[in-house]
Amino acid sequence: MTTQQLVSQINQKKSFLCIGLDVDLDKIPTHLLALEDPIFEFNKAIIDATHHLCVAYKPNTAFYEAYGIKGWQSLEKTIQYINKNHPEIFTIADAKRGDIGNTSTMYAKAFFNDLAFDSVTVAPYMGKDSVEPFLAFKDKHTILLALTSNNGAFDYQTKKIDEKELYKHVLETSKTYKNSENLMYVVGATKAEYFKEIRKIVPNAFLLVPGVGAQGGNLQDVCKYGLSENIGLLINSSRGIIYASKEHDFAEKAAEKAKELQSEMELILS
Ligand SMILES: O=c1ccn([C@@H]2O[C@H](COP(=O)(O)O)[C@@H](O)[C@H]2O)c(=O)[nH]1
User: Which pathway or pathways does this protein act in (predicted)?
Assistant: First the structure.
């Protein structure tokens, strides 16, 4: 998917919501557990109920890898279901990969070619030659961790090297990478006070913003400095939406939570 297609979808739906599909079998309604693939059935119901309210889905691969080969099959069925029924929706494999060049190429093939995701999250720690293999894929997006939503972000990401914070080095240096137009960045909603500085370095890049909802981040605070000319934000909420109810009405309740965020977004965009 091109960035322009993503922007068009945002403008049409008046939404820049990304729903995180982080399926934990201990948290889904128990009646689904009797089905052959409870993870897929849960995702399918959530997708059917929310696709008109969001522009992206973000399965975190950890929640699938934890269930071994069956989990990976559920992930594959989920992405195929989205791509077949809602091809306009932007898909993110939250896998946080990155390795030496030839290995990164294999990660990129796994998520972009085999699973056909539009994007994958990548850790910047191993540097240019670990990130550029992902950027080589046309109309695919590499979402680099810049300033994460967790407290551990302060261990390294805000520490100064040559008088500049590490996350700023990540943003600035990555702009010099080949095919850097395919870059997006992860910035946590819990770090709203950093958005002004971040936009000085990447004024137009798309930012994937997790941390709204369960982690306490706030949509209004992020939008104050986070919005760019082309909107440039994908606000993710996972637990806050998909676990709104553990009963038969789980998908309906998830849609209500998604609608609350989408309505706030519509107001912000108007
Ligand atoms: O900085 C980061 C990077 C990734 N995540 C992931 O996003 C979702 C957030 O889930 P919630 O349930 O809405 O808290 C989850 O998959 C994280 O691994 C993040 O939270 N922060």
Answer: Pyrimidine metabolism; UMP biosynthesis via de novo pathway; UMP from orotate: step 2/2
CA distances from 139 to 50, 102, 135, 174 (A): 25, 20, 9, 18
211: Cβ contacts below 8 Å, ≥ 6 apart? 149, 188, 189, 190, 191, 217, 236
Q: How far is the CA of 244 from the centre of ligand 1 (A)?
A: 17
133: left (phi over 0), alpha (psi -120 to 50) or beta: alpha
Ligand 1 binding pocket includes 186 (Cβ within 6 Å): yes
Contact 48, 254 (CB under 8 A): no
CB 197 within 8 A of CB 168: yes
pLDDT per position as a tens digit, 72-120: 999 999 999 999 999 999 999 999 999 999 999 999 999 999 999 999 9
- Answer for the pair 145, 121: CB distance below 8 angstroms, yes or no: yes
Report whether CATH 3.90.550.10 matches the domain 3-269.
no
Q: What is the interface pTM, i.e. ipTM, of the complex?
A: 0.99
Q: What is the pLDDT of residues 126-185, one digit of tens each?
A: 999 999 999 999 999 999 999 999 999 999 999 999 999 999 999 999 999 999 999 999
pTM of the model: 0.98
Residue 118 Cβ contacting ligand 1 at under 6 Å: no
Per domain, the residue ranges of the chain are 3-269
- Determine whether the shortest distance from the Cβ of 60 to ligand 1 is under 6 A: yes
Residue of 60, 154, 198 to mutate, ligand 1, most atoms within 8 A of C-beta: 60
- Regarding the beta carbon of 217 and ligand 1, being less than 6 Å apart is answered no
